[in-house]
Design brief:
The protein is mainly α. Helix content is 90%, strand content 0%. The radius of gyration is 16 Å and the shape is globular.
């Protein structure tokens, strides 16, 4: 059973993981070859698989957001997904985790 302490711990982990991903992205933009990486992502088969995996995950996240959130709140959460990716998804999961547990447990 998920206690309040478990929820807090899990939410903290998700926030930390999202923040670590954001730092990694910022670092990659600073020192990495952004255009070369983009070329690899769109021409190499593993790059294409990586992009496909990313966007499938974002689509599933958007679907979950649409099912949990109402009206314009859903729009607020879904719209940034293509730009902020799983950093944004991690934030949503951290914010909505108690509600997700409640709904999934019935």
């Amino acid at each position: 059973k998920w206690t309040a302490a478990h929820m807090t711990l899990f939410r903290g982990f998700v926030v930390a993981a999202g923040a670590a991903l954001a730092v990694l992205i910022i670092r990659a933009v600073q020192v990495g070859g952004f255009w070369a990486a983009g070329e690899w992502l769109t021409t190499d088969i593993w790059g294409i698989v990586t992009l496909s995996d990313l966007y499938l995950g974002l689509f599933i996240a958007a679907l979950a957001m649409a099912l949990v959130e109402k009206g314009m709140v859903a729009f607020f959460w879904i719209l940034p997904l293509p730009f902020l990716g799983n950093v944004w998804t991690a934030l949503w999961v951290a914010v909505r985790f108690p509600e997700l547990v409640r709904r999934l447990r019935g």
